[in-house]
Each structure stands twice: as C-alpha cells, then as structure tokens.
Design brief:
It is built from eight helices and 17 strands. It is of the alpha+beta class.
C-alpha cells in the first residue's frame, strides 16, 4: 500500500479523526491512496467489526527493489507482522492483495532472536506459505491466522482462517461487512459467529414465500430454526431495480445473509441461529 495509508488499521484511525480533519479533505486524501493500491475503503473500514483477532505488536517494512512493482509511483516491499512466537511476511508489488503470505517461526525463548534478519530475508528455511489469493494478512489468535479479502463485493467481505502449523485453509467466510464478526478461542478450539451469505437460487422479489422456503432448503436450514424472511422491499425500491425491472427476476441481483455459528473451525458445521435475515443489493 502507499506510505500515506500503510494499513487497514491506519485507515480506520484516520476515519475516526475525520471530523477534525474535515470530511472532504480526509476522503480526498484517503480515497486517492486506496485507489492507488487497488483497495477500496469499503473493504478496509469495516474490519473493526471483527472481534477477537490479535494484530501484530509491530510491523516492519523492507523495500524489495528486486521485484517489479505494478505501481510506478512506488517500489515493491514486504511487510513483516511480528508476534511472540512467529512473524508473518507479506510481499506486495501493488497487485490486488499480497503476492505471497508466509509464516516464519521465531527462535525458541532464551536464544538469540534476530527479528530484523528474519523479517528482511527474501525467504527462510521452514517457512510456511498460505494459499492466499487477493488477500491481505489480518491477524492471529493462538494457532490460527486470519486474512481478509482485498476488496468488497457490495455488503460481502471475505475472511479466511488458516492453521499456523501447516498453512492449511480451515475456513473461508463470506460475511456481512457491517455486522459484528465474533472470533472466540478456548484452548485449541476456535469458534466463529457472523452473518453468512446464503445461496440464493430463485428471485426473492415481491416477498415470495415459495422462494424463501426454497432458500432455507437449499442452505440446509433446519425447519425448527426460527428464521425470519429477509425484508428486501427497500432494496427492490432502489433506482437500479426501477431502471432495470428485469433484475427483480435475477437471484444474483441481491445478497442475503443469515446469522450462523461454527463451533469448531477444524470441523466446520454451520449452525443457523435464527432471527431476521438481511438483504442487500449486489454490486
């Protein structure tokens, strides 16, 4: 990312200070920086809705002049996120998302720990690579690493959970960016609770009860779950639907989210929690 806004957290801090700066000035500077790095503010700002993930104690940056940058205004670089037992290194050449994300173990306690050398090295023996495409590193908790999608699609964001010992992908969450995403860890078990994007194979226009019943079935929602149909009325009254009424018959014209819980990310099973589902227009 450009040095003017070096991280999602920095964007969030500046957004909180926006009233003091003046919104037009803030958004002019912030939006320009994010567009230059192919990251939209809509993808970055709601990251503070994710609770229970630890961010790095410090982040070290190293220029990589040996890697051609897709942005002529800046060099490629690698960011090193420092944690007590390991570091996570991202290589960024200006593409959408990090080029690579790797985990490197720190030395055992009591032995010399050369953080700078570990962070600046192009690679180290035994490092673990994550199969992360169009993602940025977000944080960690216990034995679990988290990455976030580099961009947003309407109200939908993406969050990935990885096993830090193997680099294996444990779960990919498609979730509502503006609703709380809870991460809870107890010993070696990690649970998640968030608004999950449901599969939609029929148009929900005109408050169709039949389509809603089909949607519950397609998403394996138990009949005993007290799930209220998403209220898409205000969405359907939007200017895009008025201008193109044929969209009312397209299932992918809207996004529907329902609250779920995953008790253990190593054994993923979606438990729908009931309540009212949410409806948003697709981008």
């Amino acid at each position: 990312m450009p040095s003017s806004i070096a991280s999602f957290e920095e964007f969030d801090r500046r957004l909180q200070a926006a009233p003091a700066l003046g919104l037009p000035v803030f958004f002019g500077l912030a939006l320009a920086a994010f567009l230059a790095s192919s990251i939209t503010p809509s993808a970055a700002y709601p990251l503070r809705m994710i609770k229970g993930v630890e961010t790095a104690s410090k982040v070290l940056k190293t220029p990589r002049k040996d890697i051609l940058s897709s942005d002529p205004a800046r060099d490629s670089f690698q960011s090193c996120h420092v944690f007590p037992d390991f570091v996570v290194v991202e290589l960024d050449s200006g593409q959408i998302g990090a080029d690579t994300i790797t985990l490197r173990k720190r030395r055992p306690k009591g032995k010399e720990d050369r953080i700078k050398a570990i962070c600046e090295a192009k690679s180290v023996q035994g490092e673990i690579s994550l199969a992360a495409q169009e993602q940025y590193f977000f944080g960690a908790t216990g034995d679990f690493l988290f990455t976030h999608s580099a961009d947003a699609a309407g109200a939908e964001g993406g969050l990935w959970v990885y096993d830090s010992a193997t680099g294996k992908t444990l779960h990919e969450a498609s979730y509502h960016l503006k609703r709380e995403f809870l991460v809870r860890r107890k010993n070696k078990t990690l649970s998640l609770e968030y608004f999950h994007r449901m599969k939609l194979n029929c148009p929900l226009a005109h408050a169709s009860a039949k389509c809603w019943d089909e949607t519950l079935k397609d998403n394996a929602v138990p009949s005993a779950t007290a799930m209220e149909r998403a209220d898409c009325g205000s969405v359907f009254k939007g200017k895009e639907f008025k201008k193109y009424p044929a969209l009312l018959q397209k299932p992918d014209a809207i996004q529907v989210f329902a609250k779920i819980r995953i008790a253990d990310v190593r054994n993923v099973k979606l438990q729908y929690l009931g309540g009212r589902a949410l409806c948003n227009a697709s981008p």
